[in-house]
Amino acid sequence: MFYEILAEDMSFDQKMEEIAKVLPQILRYPEKASARILFGPYSYKSPVFKQGKYQISSSNIPKNEEKSHALWLELFYKDLSLKNNYEPFTSDEKQKLDFIAKILSVFIDKEIEAKKVRY
Q1: Helix, strand, coil share of the chain (percent; to 5)
Q2: Sign, Cα dihedral of 45, 47, 53, 57
Q3: Which of 64, 86, 101, 116 could join 112 in a cystine, given CB atoms 3.0 to 4.6 angstroms apart?
Q4: pLDDT profile of the chain (119 residues), mean per 10
Q5: Hey, CA dihedral for 118, 36, 103, 109, is it positive or negative?
């Protein structure tokens, strides 16, 4: 799903917006989740974005960027009621989010290199 979006013939911003839309699907309750991707001064959000009480995030700094352009992926649950002290996110979900952050960092590096070659 993520690889397909990155391979599409669309702008960088459009790709980030599409990924923000589908990112909640890695969670157990995607219908109660929203996502945000932060990259430097840019923010890409899933539809009907709402920060919730429960949050999981992952960050990565692309090789060709400065710390001010760190990549952050954030997932939030809104209106989630937990029973029996269950954790809102599983370790598997965290691993998936970390993996996607790494994929996006590699993609950003390749985009930056391609721009350097063109100019």
Answers
A1: 45, 20, 35
A2: negative
A3: 64
A4: 89 95 96 94 94 93 68 92 84 96 90 73
A5: positive
Find the distance separating the first CA and the last CA of the chain, reported in whole Å: 31
> What counts of helices (H) and strands (E) characterise the chain?
3, 4
Residue with tokens 């949050």: 55
Position 114 scores a pLDDT of 78
Structure tokens at 24: 């909640």
Domain count, the chain: 1
| Crossing angle (nearest 10°) for helices 91-118 and 12-22 | 170
The pLDDT value given to residue 26: 97
Alpha helices, DSSP H, located in 8-90: 12-22
Q: Which domain holds residue 14?
A: 2-78+85-118
Residue count of the chain: 119
Are 82 and 88 in contact by the 8 Å Cβ rule? The answer is: yes
